[in-house]
Automatic annotation (TrEMBL):
Residues 4-131 form the SnoaL-like domain. It comes from the Bacteria. It comes from Solimonas fluminis. This is Nuclear transport factor 2 family protein.
Length: 144
C-alpha cells in the first residue's frame, strides 16, 4: 500500500468519525462540511427521507431534538479506493434515549450499514452519496 493510500484511508476514517460527532453534538455547520454541494442521502431504510444534505440535516435535527440523548458509533469500514473516489461500507450502531410513557428513559438501539461514495475535493475527502441499510433494531417503542 502506498503512503498516499494510507493517508487517504486515515482521512476517510476521520471524515466518517466527524459525521458521528456532528450528529451527537448537533453541529449542523460541521455536518454540512462533510458533504459535497451536490450530495444525495438516502435514509429511507429507517423511515427517513432521501434528499440533499440540507434536507437531511433538517430531518435529523427534528429527530434528535426529540431525544434526551444519543450516541452514534462506527466500526469495521471497508474502503475501496480508486484515485480521487472511494466506495466505503461501514457498520454503525446508534443508541438513543427518548421519553417513555410515564416520562422514564426509554433506550433504543439500531444497527445499520452506511454505503458511501466519497470524492477527494480541494478541502479533502467529502461524502457525495450516503445510503443507510437496515441491519437490526432493539427496544423500539410501539409507535416506531
Amino acid at each position: 500500500m502506498t503512503p498516499q493510500a494510507l493517508a487517504d484511508r486515515q482521512h476517510i476514517q476521520d471524515l466518517l468519525v466527524r459525521y458521528c460527532h456532528a450528529l451527537d453534538e448537533r453541529d449542523w455547520p460541521g455536518f454540512h462540511a462533510l458533504f459535497t454541494a451536490d450530495a444525495r442521502l438516502d435514509f429511507r431504510a429507517f423511515g427517513g427521507p432521501a434528499g440533499s444534505a440540507a434536507e437531511l440535516a433538517d430531518y435529523l435535527a427534528g429527530v434528535l431534538a426529540s431525544m434526551r440523548g444519543c450516541q452514534h458509533t462506527i466500526s469495521t469500514s471497508r474502503v475501496d479506493l480508486d484515485g480521487d473516489e472511494a466506495r466505503v461500507r461501514t457498520a454503525a450502531q446508534v443508541m438513543m434515549v427518548s421519553a417513555g410513557p410515564q416520562g422514564q428513559d426509554h433506550v433504543l438501539f439500531a444497527g445499520l450499514w452506511y454505503r458511501d461514495h466519497l470524492v477527494r475535493s480541494p478541502g479533502g475527502w467529502r461524502i457525495r452519496q450516503r445510503t443507510q441499510e437496515y441491519a437490526w433494531t432493539h427496544n423500539l417503542p410501539p409507535s416506531a
